[in-house]
Design a protein that fits this description.
Elements: H1 2-12, E1 31-35, H2 38-48, E2 52-56, H3 71-79, E3 82-85, H4 93-100, E4 106-109, E5 118-120, E6 145-148, H5 156-173, H6 178-202, E7 210-217, H7 220-226, E8 229-235, H8 245-258, E9 262-265, H9 272-281, E10 284-287, H10 296-300, H11 305-320
Parallel strand pairs: 1-2, 1-3, 3-4, 7-8, 9-10
Antiparallel strand pairs: 5-6
């Protein structure tokens, strides 16, 4: 990755004045905000309103763990006023870029806006060879911590906190219009907190608190927020897609034992594992969107973090009926 970034930095030197493909031309009268992933982009554009321009680095439909910045991306970061990024392992490349460009703007890490949880393996979960944390080479047992969980946005209250932090950063950068940024951020944060209340009310019923995912599980913060008991095929950052027979058997037995009617999968998954478990257990499958990224059609149709999470709530309610 460092070699790729170094080459991109060299190429970027020859691209002065070029706007990143697929992004709006810069308005010199507005602050420029660049975000690495969709949730950060959504929170930024909500706080910005019509006062600033927000741009998303991660292409629609792409996986952030395999993302490689282009020269145009590097220029966008270098020239922006506010750079919002996750701060977890999946975007370690960011620090390399910031150390090698003349970045004069402000950087905001999402992980600094909330209380962090540690990722853990769960009973039945299969650790992936691609799931690397700096904890040595030993295998992890059930319930053992394997590093910081970086998927902080998956809890709506965390999303509200990040939105307010972005609004405050914009207000400090553009003091003359500071209260408008703060008001924009507060309005969106209030809607996110209202949604949080709706999720809490749904999960107040004990029979709704167990979820099984035939997929990766990047929803630790969501589960923690509502006291959920969850089981999944892989950790949140797992790269493997073929679970062992023992993992499939465990999850199938869990669906049957809990009397669950749904096995969940996440966006951009082929959901073959979920389908297999559901077929064996006599259950259905359904999508639970982690909001990590969206398809281009969804982005162009105006999808937001709020609309995607509202869709998740409706999916939960539909499965209960």
């Amino acid at each position: 990755m460092r070699r790729i970034i170094a080459l991109a930095l060299v190429c970027a030197c020859f691209l002065t004045g070029c706007a990143p493909a697929g992004r709006e031309p810069k308005d010199p009268e507005k602050l420029q905000v660049v975000a690495t992933i969709f949730p950060a982009y959504d929170f930024a554009r909500a706080a910005a309103g019509d006062l600033a321009q927000a741009a998303l680095l991660l292409p629609p439909g792409a996986e952030s763990h395999s993302y490689e910045p282009t020269p145009a991306d590097i220029l966008a970061v270098r020239d922006c006023d506010l750079f919002v990024y996750l701060g977890g392992e999946s975007d370690h490349w960011v620090e390399t870029i910031l150390d090698n460009i003349d970045f004069q703007g402000r950087a905001l890490r999402m992980v600094d806006c909330v209380d962090l949880l540690e990722e853990e393996t769960r009973e039945g979960m299969q650790e992936s060879p691609g799931h690397r944390h700096d904890h040595g080479d030993h295998d992890h047992g059930p319930g053992e911590v394997v590093g910081m969980d970086e998927h902080v946005w998956t809890a709506p209250r965390n999303a509200a906190a990040v939105t307010r932090a972005v609004g405050e950063a914009l207000a400090e950068l553009d003091g003359a219009r500071g209260e408008r940024y703060r008001a924009n951020a507060e309005a969106y944060a209030a809607r996110l907190e209202a949604l949080d209340g709706e999720f809490a009310a749904f999960f107040a019923e004990p029979e709704n608190r167990t979820m099984v995912f035939g997929d990766r599980f990047p929803l630790r913060y969501f589960a923690e927020a509502y006291g959920l008991d969850y089981y999944a095929a892989f950790p949140g950052c797992g790269a493997q897609t073929e679970p062992s027979a023992a993992t499939v058997a465990f999850l199938t037995e869990k669906v049957e034992a809990e009397g669950l009617d749904t096995v969940w999968y996440i966006e951009f998954s082929n959901h073959l594992v979920a389908d297999s478990i559901a077929e064996a257990a006599g259950a259905d499958t359904a999508l639970f969107h982690t909001c990590h990224n969206v398809a281009r059609a969804d982005l162009e149709a105006g999808a937001t973090y709020l609309s995607l999470m509202e869709g998740n709530l409706e999916a939960l309610r539909a499965r209960r009926r």
